[in-house]
Amino acid sequence: MPSKPRRPRARRRRAAPLFGCGVDVVELSRFRQALARGGEPFMRRIFTAQEAAYARARRPTMLLHLAGRFAAKEAVIKALSQVDPTRAPAMNQVEVRNDRLGRPSIVLHDRPRARRKRVRLHISLSHVDTVAVASAIAIR
Q: Which pTM value belongs to this model?
């Protein structure tokens, strides 16, 4: 007697990861004006002490480095808002760091570790004489 054909097993579906994407462009002339208007309070509100030190150590291109980090923070906040709308960190809670090879990465200082939802962030920065641009992808 022929055997019954086997029914294929139902495959378990894994939940698809959530993606968020953010991009920001900063004109250096406008950023220079904002920096001049806001001064040191602007720097403290936007950048961590490590980011400010990183840029100041590169005096000839300080403005480019600060504008690139500003663009990265904006891009990260936009990407995070698509993945988790309840998570809106302040600018100085998003820190851009470079590894020993110079690759940028993000450290979030927005919530206690126990309450954080696991989000991976990937960023890319670039700048030329007049513009800085950054893109960010958030994956949960």
A: 0.83
